Amino acid sequence: MLKVTVISPSPSTPIAIPRDEIHVWLVDILKMQRADILGECSAMLSKDENDRLKSFRSQSRKQQFLVSRAALRSVVSCYSPEESAKSLRFTTNAHGKPELVVNPLALQFNLSHSRDKVVIGVAKRRAIGVDVEFVDRNRNTKRIADHYFHPNEWSSELLQKDVEAGNDSALRFFTLWTLKEALIKAEGKGLAIALNTFWFSLDNTLQPTLVRAKHTLAERAWSFSRRVVDEDYCVAIAYENNQEHVPTTLIMKRFVHEFCLTGGVRFKKGR
Fold it and tell me: Which UniProt keyword terms apply here (predicted)?
């Protein structure tokens, strides 16, 4: 059941995140290209982040990194009012997944970007992974899928069913790719987990089903959601089921320069 709500808190009001909610923030880089906005973003970054920013030669890659890091700091600080966005300190686990150095609220978060979109997922006391990809229909997805996908996800029979249903192979590819990326990021191990050692069933359009191969993934109970946003971007969210076994609500939020919300889509999910 889909429930739409309008959310308009003050930018200065801390955001609470109950255990039964997952928050997913959508950031549009194109709406943050003014010089004054980029200057504020740069002032928010740490010295290490600004040093890394200077290493990029591509202007678009610079803006993507700058906005995504500033947005991450802004979003996380909304849940940790004791810390300013600039004062937050990040570290990474052994596989490169970002974490907070000081984390009394046990916040879990993850970030992904593609072209001019950034997605940030936030949860409390449970693992989360997100991925976003631009649906590039000019890309040679078949070659990549044949190498990385399980035969139960990518076959001539499945592709023919997609054609009959009016879907294209590019949408199947990027749906599966974002789901796989979201899961291995939630696991915290990245590409240390081979993408073809587990697979997804897409029979349920909005709530994919994971089929895990033996010994490839930890024995956790995962839930998934996927959406196409702004027409050309696939977004996938993987999150650990909460221990209370109560339904989880995913809330999608639009990030704007003032670091407040313009609105959100709220929909009930299973555990």
Answer: Transferase
